[in-house]
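Marked as duplicate of an earlier ticket. Keeping the data here for the record.
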Amino acid sequence: MKRILKRMSMVIMSMVILMSVSPLSKADATSEVITLGINLNNTQKKEILNYFGVDENNPNIIYVNNKQERKYLSGIAPEEQIGRVTMSSSYVVPTNDGGINVKTSNITWVTSSMIASTLSTAGVENANVVAAAPFPVSGTGALTGIIMAFEKSSGEVLTEEKKKLANEELVTTGNLAEKVGKDKAAGIVNDAKKEVIKDNIKDEKQIENAVKEVANNYNVNLTTGDINIIVNLLKNISNQNYNYNEVKDTLNNISANVISKLKESGENIDIKGFQNTIKSFLDNNKDAANFFNKFDDSKLSSDAVVSTTAEGLNTAASIAGDIGNQVKESGFFEKIVNFIKSLLPSN
């Protein structure tokens, strides 16, 4: 009987531990770094620094110029998107885990999900990021600044090839977004990339099949030209031999966020394995949402265009609740009770 009670206590304690474990703090790595667009005037610079909550004498401020943008974007981004000046700025905090979480304010051509996905391609694994401008701008320069800030704050040097791939991915997704919508574009490129990295797909035909399948999941019919562009991008990404375990948090979080937002808008999206990503999405973005809330968008403008990788939290939480109810109704808890009863001696 003592042995049985001991076994029961171990089972119960294991259940309690599993149900009570909470994630570690995400923002406990190195210090923040702030990038400012070199062409901001004094008033605009003060506005951005006020938004970031940073003093102008902060030693972690660096400046980004159009020449640095063009190093990675020339020949990839449309000329009208690159422009001749750099106005977008960023606030970057490397973290120990939780993937890449991004907030954008007044960045209009790209979304937070696009930036998060492309940062994973650049080689970033974990970071909290805010990209902003004092008024609406395309945001093509934001990625350059964020990468520079990450390298300075983390002390990690990212490879030039991966940085170029990241910019190519950003532009590819941005161009696709003009045809199918920003959320679907981000979801398609992100999820296809996830499949290629996870399954280490190198064959061009298999990559093409993965792209078509993912697009179908999002109820999108891609043109042959769009498919070829995405396939070429993913072929180059597959040759970089990314470690799936190092990028999966970010890629899964983006999937969950995008799908939650699409479901909220009434889209009937049914992605295989989506339910398994919800809990990690909620856990990873709980701290990120608190981080994002520190930045008051009204300090930029009353109509600032805002996007975060935690936008789908409410819908995801609702879906997670529905799943919990389904599990309960399925008799799972009854099975646990019966299992414990099976440990007791029969009369």
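See parent ticket for discussion. DSSP finds 14 helices and six strands in the chain.
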